[in-house]
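Board work, copied verbatim: TIR domain-containing protein
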Amino acid sequence: MKQSAVVGVVRVWMLFSTLWASLGQLTSRQECVRCKCDDCSKPCCKVFSPSGLTELSVAVNCSQPDDVIILDTVTMATDPDPESQCNGHSLTHTDGCLTSTPTNLCAFPQIKAVSLRNNSLSKIPELTCLSGLIYLDFRKNVITTVPQDTFKGLFALREVYLDDNAITYIHPLAFDPSTSMLTTFSVSGNLMTVLDPWMFLLPRPFCRFNFSHNNIARLTNEQHFNIGRSSRAHYGPGFVDVTYNNMVMSPADDMKQYGIYEVPDLLPFISWGFDLRFNPFHCDCKFFKVVKFLNYVSTYLWRSYFNITCASPSQFRGVPMFQLPLDQLTCPVTVTCPLPCTCTQRPYYQDVLVNCSHKRLMTLPRDLPEGNLTLDMTGNAIRRLDLQNYLQRVVHLNLTANHLFEVDQQAALALRHVRSLDMRGNNLHHLSTTLQVVSPDAIYLDIGTLKCTCELEWFLHWTGRHIYENLQKITCLSESDGRHVLLINATRRDLGCEAEDTSLSHETWAYVIVAAAVVLIVPILVVVFRYELLVLYHRFFHRQPGEKYLPALLEVPRYDIFVSTATNSDNDATWVSRILLPAMDRRKLTYFVPQRDNLPGAIPMDEVVQTLRQSKCALILLSPDYLAQPICCFQFRQAYDMMVKEGRGRVFVVCLQKVKRGQMQDHLLRAILNLNMAYSGDNPDDLYNLINLI
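↓ predict structure ↓
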């Protein structure tokens, strides 16, 4: 992820955080609710208390805990006030021996609160009949699963507590999609091993989903839900607690299954809170993006749940993630890693480090891991650098302290992307000419091992006489006089090449050949493409009208556009009436269409000339029917001569249908198409841009 993108996301996060207090849900005043804070719209406000409801009593015999009924004495004796907001019942039976809910539960549809905490319930009963249920407390029972549609039809459900059961699985579709009031869902202290986030992807703010103190190790995606970077859906916000679980690997890997690959993909959740503390995270390369994100976020915004610590490896145990050194977040790579080398993935450097130093290797490894490579071959016995299929992926290659005396030409070509190539401590007497594909500041050589030969002449052009710090002290040994010559200052004579003045003749001949080619080719191009060149000249250079046209230019144009289209062409007429004219009307442009606006009895050609003089520009609607009509070709030529050549305005060509170049008798019209200066009638963007130019 790029630093600028991360910083931008952080700033957006800070903006959303300031608006957090204003986000919330509307509280229904038709339910039995009591605000316990100043603002009932806050999702974490305690807005409900069962104390104001009529309490139902339960008859149960612990010797037969399955035979349970609700006694109907108090509720029938007292007729509740229909105007009261607290018109409802509550069912409470805690610290008992219930193994099932009362058999006549649905006989009391006005139940708004159910609290059966600390009993022996093994499953959640059918609750669809309690459509007004707001509060559900089944803590400290022996419930094992929460199946699909468990809470179906409970549209007013606000708080659900299933803590301290034996729940191992919650179906992602346990809640009714129409449930719009849910603020709290707690399943702390259960036996869950996986978590499907689909259940808390609510389209409105909520307070807290608590999954703490389970055995959650990873995230799942049973519904194949994909958020995607282009998603416009709104979720939450809310707070999700996953503390004290068994998450070891980075959640970033699990999030890929939801279409979340980079930090910008998290924008729909920018104002959420996720507490992942107290998990045994193994902080390696897979945490790189998470740690990098936390580093930036903690600089601008701090939350206590950012203090996520590592459990392993040992050097990071107990260290907060936002304090981890990014360059030390690495992972061992075993796939295609050659023995006896070690391979390490390093996200900070965006490469895989292959360490084969001091392994007594005679050649380069044959296969290496995927990705950019940093290859350390220090202290081996390599004599020749041969071509390998991975060399084009090598960004750093260290060949110091080997027995290297030759570099294969194809191997040098493959190293064109290398950023450092260290060949010091070897016996190189010659350099392959193909090494010049490598940047001069990337190669490191011994000072005095090279021999001065004419084969090194490329070195002078390669460095361009620039002084590179890594090359400025490199010398070669002259075989003629035995002296060491600085390569960056060497002459052809120093390298033992032919006389220096012959190079001048080669350069001179090169200039002569180029000049001759220009003299021959340019006239040919002018003849072949004379009309194209004329159109370009009129378009870009012929801007000033002559004095003889000045009086006409002082006239106020009557029309913005002269529309030249084929006569009696149904396709062209349909395009004009349905697409072109409405577009021009929206821009309030004035236009003249000869087929529609010619005066009865007027001479068409005279009318064309007169109307063109009163127009700012001409629009040529090109089609096979247009080319077949002489009057249309006359309109184009008059428009081009009067608008373009005389400098009165511009001519725009729009292709309504494909036309063959051979059908065009007018060379200027053909040149406009050859230069791709025509617009497409099938492309709305072309028409929009064209109208804006007028």
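The CA atoms of residues 15 and 507 lie 64 Å apart.
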